[in-house]
Amino acid sequence: MAWSALYLVNFLWAMAGSSTQSRSSCSVPSAQQPLVNGLQVLMENSVTSSAFPNPSVLIAMNLAGAYNLEVQKLLTYQLMASDAADLTIGQLALTIMALTSSCRDPGNRVSILQGQMENWVPSSTSTQASTFYGPSLAILALCQKNPETTLPIAARFAKTLLANSSPFNMDTGAMATLALTCMYNKIPVGSEEGYRVLFGQVLKDIVENISIRIQDNGIIGSIYSTGLAMQALSVTPEKPNKEWNCKETMDTILNEIEQGKFHNPMSIAQILPSLKGKTYLDVPQVSCSPDNEVQPTLPNQPTTVPTSASNITVIYTINNQLRGVDLLFNVTINVSVKSGSVLLVVLEEAQRKNPMFKFETTMTSWGPLVSSINNIAENVHHKTYWQLLSGKTPLNEGVADYIPFNHEHITANFTQY
Ligand code: B12
Ligand SMILES: *[C@@H]1O[C@H](CO)[C@@H](O)[C@H](O)[C@H]1NC(C)=O
Ligand SMILES: *[C@@H]1O[C@H](CO)[C@@H](O)[C@H](O)[C@H]1NC(C)=O
Ligand SMILES: *[C@@H]1O[C@H](CO)[C@@H](O)[C@H](O)[C@H]1NC(C)=O
Ligand SMILES: *[C@@H]1O[C@H](CO)[C@@H](O)[C@H](O)[C@H]1NC(C)=O
Ligand SMILES: *[C@@H]1O[C@H](CO)[C@@H](O)[C@H](O)[C@H]1NC(C)=O
Fold first, then answer.
1. Does residue 338's CB lie within 6 angstroms of at least one atom of ligand 5?
2. An example of a Gene Ontology BP annotation on this entry (predicted)?
């Protein structure tokens, strides 16, 4: 009897896993629907034929139901044409899921990714958790395409996560939850009980780590990790000890959207599925019938406040205490920029005033990343990067999005992850 009960429970989980559980208590109120439509339009319109294709945008628009079919087609073709050899593990995984969400065959990309994950060597147990973000995407993509052959790879990945001792990272925890939930739901009947125990144990640990980081206002981690965390909490078979109030999270996020916090297309791509009650686990179920292009109801354009032409002063420090004994520096400059300028303008103004503040950026899915300052460049092998801080607090946006205030002290500190 106990046996059949266990079987029934497992069976029900398998069913629940095949689609996102209904969360009717946590959907966008109809009054705020135009706000969400506006966000989706903003994301879709960010796509241009010159920019490198962003698979996360295609996944989000397909999960939400695309408005702009031209953009959908363009992104799909660009991704079909991309060469797997130029992509990282995570980018390849996103490309596979994006093509799947457009009902295209990702071709040999799946076997290439599988080969890479079979050879994947997890570094030491103290490796920063965020380095598991790309591999989590890989397990998720492989699970959706080929769950049985992915089992041993996912088991190795899960054991590595369990053994890791570095501080918890919300985005990575959320992505690992999606990946291992997919695997958990697809363990073949009659296979070793060990897989279920292992995946269940890791999921329980991660979900507990997520739940203790739910703030009183519903934000999970930071506002930019909340979208992925919502996806994770809505699919996981392991429920957290502390109950999650999804409606509270939704209300706060909608409020942040109204404040204009989600204008970066990538930030929209990561929040939109949750606003539509979807998760990355729904990617294989997207229906691609060529339905009519529905025109969304958009919000009334908020009257943009004319920005005053006055200037502000930003105190800007560049600090390298890490690399090259004879190259260490810690210098500060005051720069004057137009009020409302993004941080990038401050860096450009500093560079113009003093050549020591010379910097370079690299284009990424999130926009320009500051890759080098005063000839000191980030390096993946050394795990070094330029961290941006306001006072002692790390910024939660990059240079093209963050708007400094008057007399703010911004530091770019060369450090390790
Ligand atoms: C890993 C990671 C990093 C690593 C990347 C290097 C590495 N090899 O691991 C490091 C530690 C360098 C990093 C740095 C920063 N990060 Co970061 N990062 C992530 C994380 C957890 C995963 C990214 C990833 O692997 N994606 C998967 C691959 C397949 O996609 P990809 O496009 O190829 O990934 C690249 C970009 O994401 C880029 N990148 C990573 N972070 C950032 C941040 C910005 C602003 C930009 C432009 C690019 C960028 O590096 C990735 C590897 O090359 C994401 C979480 C998320 N939800 O996306 C946060 C995330 C993207 N980072 C974020 C932030 C805020 C930063 C910093 C600004 C933090 C700071 N105070 O300094 C800095 C960038 C500063 C600068 N020099 O310009 C935010 C961005 C939010 C926003 N609205 O802009 C995120 C979403 C985390 C969060 N939830 O708040 N990050
Ligand atoms: C959960 O958080 C604790 C403390 O930060 C950490 O030791 C543990 O490894 C985390 N577990 C997972 C699976 O991330
Ligand atoms: C760098 O300079 C700042 C401001 O001048 C100072 O507060 C800080 O202690 C310095 N840090 C190091 C490591 O020298
Ligand atoms: C820079 O600004 C700060 C505060 O706004 C001020 O104390 C400092 O003297 C200024 N430094 C220079 C070099 O102008
Ligand atoms: C105001 O800021 C702009 C850059 O945004 C700069 O070019 C200009 O010199 C500043 N004006 C003054 C008076 O500092
Ligand atoms: C700047 O980076 C150095 C080297 O990693 C580190 O020791 C220091 O604590 C960092 N400073 C801040 C303010 O984070």
1. yes
2. cobalt ion transport
